[in-house]
Amino acid sequence: MERTTGRGVLEDRAALVTAGASGIGLGIATRFVAEGARVLIADIDGERADAAARSLGPRARAAAVDVKDEGAQRRMVAEARALGGGRLDVAVDCAGYNRSGLIMEQDLEAWRDVVEICLTSVFLGIKHQAAAMTAGGSIINIASLNARQPAEGMAAYCSAKAGITILTQVAAMELGSRGIRVNAIGPGLIETPRTSEVIFTRPGLVEAFVEQTALGRYGLPLTWPGSRSSWRRTIRSG
Ligand SMILES: NC(=O)c1ccc[n+]([C@@H]2O[C@H](COP(=O)([O-])OP(=O)(O)OC[C@H]3O[C@@H](n4cnc5c(N)ncnc54)[C@H](O)[C@@H]3O)[C@@H](O)[C@H]2O)c1
Question: What is the pTM for the complete model shown?
């Protein structure tokens, strides 16, 4: 949402968004910039992160970061802090993906990969982001509806996302006295480059998701084509 008048709610704040080059992360980064923040878009796809930062203007910067790597997370936080003139106010830990497989068929490598990207990376993020938030701040972890809702073939993803919710609660307890809030968001189905490939192409799946949704619709990130006009669109008839 672009502001035409007044100060944004994040004016003079410094933020970082992991997985900020696409989908939900890009939507969040876009909104943060519109609200006046300086934002580091951190993504393993450095070229896409560069393009995203260029499209958002001078308040955005890009960094090529693999969030599974602790050294890369440390450097990312230092870069975000430099962008903020020595402070980091907001961090969004958004990186994550699923690799489907029934438990009896999934190999250990795939399990570890999903747990590492969805859960361990959030642990590493909180650890280094909190250390940089010397004046307090806010850490927002992107979990999923699947933190609560089991799905066949998604044992690693559901377990890792459920892990984020309890990790977030522990972190909130540990960091509250430093003025750092830690929260998690559990999105339902959001149309993004990833889900448009793996979910929206499968007949009946979107309808099944929407059927269980109180508002009768799926979500669209701010940056998704048509999102402003069509976020209310419903595929449930009546
Ligand atoms: N889209 C949904 O319906 C939905 C629902 C619930 C939760 N989520 C969660 O939201 C987050 C974003 O999902 P999305 O649909 O926007 O995905 P997306 O595929 O559109 O974007 C993911 C981004 O993550 C980046 N990435 C991948 N591995 C990385 C790594 N190791 N280090 C840094 N960046 C990496 C990719 O380059 C990509 O830019 C994920 O954690 C996902 O689990 C999505």
Answer: 0.94
